[in-house]
Amino acid sequence: MALNGVGIPESAKSDTEPSSATELVPSAHGNHKSRLLFMGLKRSGKSSIINVVLYKLPPTETVFIPATVVIKKHALYSYRNFQIWDLPGQIDFLETNFDTESIFGSAGAMVWILDAQDDYLESVARLTETVVQLQQMYPDIKYSVFIHKVDSLGSDFREDIVRDIIQRIMDDLNDAGLENPPVSFYPTSVYDDSIYEALSKVLQLLNPQLATFEALLNTLAGSCKMQKLYLFDVLSKLYIASDTTPVDMAGYTLCSDYIDTIVDLSEIYGWDRGSLRNGHMNGDTDKSQALQKTEEGNSESFISGIRGYCLYLKEMNKFLALIGFSKEPRFAAEKPLIDYNVKVFQDALASVLALT
Fold first, then answer.
1. Please, are residues 228 and 247 in contact by the beta-carbon 8 Å criterion?
2. Which of 75, 155, 306, 325 has its CA 20 to 30 A from that of 249?
3. How many alpha carbons fall within 13 Å on the CB side of residue 39?
4. Distance (Å) of CA 111 to CA 44, 107, 356
5. DSSP strand pairing (107-115 vs 81-86)
């Protein structure tokens, strides 16, 4: 059960081209774009998503959020500092009187929020126009479409709407000359975990070490006989990486609820996350200390027999927690070996984070 060779290869620490997914891609924050743009027509739900995910606003209170009339900039403090910009939907920022470079030049990804309850033809047309123009000027931007507010649609009608929206967007982009455009689609709602799953996938596009994280998680999952492993950002409940097995939404929801409970308890008896939750840190020293693994203050939890799952959680540092589940009958009996494997993984993760 012990992990064999889940360290960081020496070749990964050089400036040479990495030869496998487990080797690191040296990068600095300034060299990798960590800005995420939220775009879409007005009242499509951009600000609601940001307030629910980042600021834990109850979904039922999102109806009271005023319309966005200026660019609002938000920060997500994690193992890397991400910027999330909320762009007003009534303004076309690609017009010549705007400084497009200052808005889009440092963007790594763009999310288009499309209201599935509304007449979406105008939104599809605006999205197509935006993607075509941005691809010419900033070809490295990745695009995601959140087909939002699907919770109010019937299950059969929902599938038809989602399928029609995707088909229209892809047809329009192909007609505009874009073959295989870098666009992903996610049905979302602020009333369930679909918005966290979708936004997690988007943030992973901004992670230069995603392949390394996935390789380490794949090895750990195989050694520990886990059905699924996630590396969660503990404050936002977004996962920055997972092993490459398909996502089990029932298991993901269980992990999401589990991490809420454990992290709330850890703030009483373990880490002091006040400065992180308030959206500021005291310089690079605090950030480097928060990224370091430590044997003191790490929350750890193991539960068996929950809906047929065994759940395992261990904090890696102040930002990140490893959480997974298994249906293996001997999982509980072999926990000491699993703890050892996780310790090896934590060492390897610390080496990766030291280079990012």
1. yes
2. 75
3. 26
4. 12, 11, 24
5. unpaired
Other beta carbons within 10 angstroms of residue 122's beta carbon come to 10
- The confidence score (pLDDT) of residue 261 equals 83
Cβ atoms of 254 and 306 within 8 Å: the answer is: yes
The tokens describing 48, both together, are 């609601």
Taking alpha carbons only, the member of 117, 174, 141, 114 closest to residue 33 is 141
Residue with tokens 């039922």: 60
Q: Render pLDDT for 86-140 as a digit per residue (tens, 0 to 9).
A: 999 989 898 878 889 999 999 999 999 999 999 999 999 999 999 999 999 999 9
Residue 331 CB neighbour total at 10 angstroms? 20
Task: List the one residue out of 301, 338, 345, 349 whose CA is nearest residue 323.
Answer: 301
Q: What is the mean pLDDT of residues 297-306?
A: 77
State how far the Cα of 192 lies from the Cα of 272, in Å rounded to an integer. 28
CB 337 within 8 A of CB 326: no
Residue found by looking up tokens 């605090």 in the block: 286
What's the average model confidence in pLDDT over 213-226? 95
Strands 107-115 and 142-148: parallel
Taking the CB of residue 309, how many other CB atoms lie within 10 A of it?
A: 22
Q: Locate all alpha helices (DSSP H) within the chain, ordered by sequence.
A: 46-55, 100-104, 121-137, 155-175, 194-204, 210-224, 249-269, 274-277, 283-291, 335-354
Rounded CA gap, 182 and 174, in Å?
Answer: 12
Q: What percent of the chain has pLDDT over 90?
A: 59
Tell me phi and psi for residue 77, to 5 degrees: -90, 115
d(CA 191, CA 127): 25
Q: Residues in the chain, how many?
A: 356
Query: Tell me, what amino acid is at 288?
Result: S
Distances (CA, A) of 342 to 22, 295, 314, 324, 339: 17, 13, 8, 11, 5
The DSSP line for 74-88 is: EEEESSSEEEEEE--
| Distance, CA of 300 to CA of 312 (rounded, Å) | 8
| Under 8 Å between Cβ of 317 and 263 | no
Q: Dihedrals φ, ψ of 148, to 5°? A: -95, 160
Q: Which amino acid is at 310?
A: C
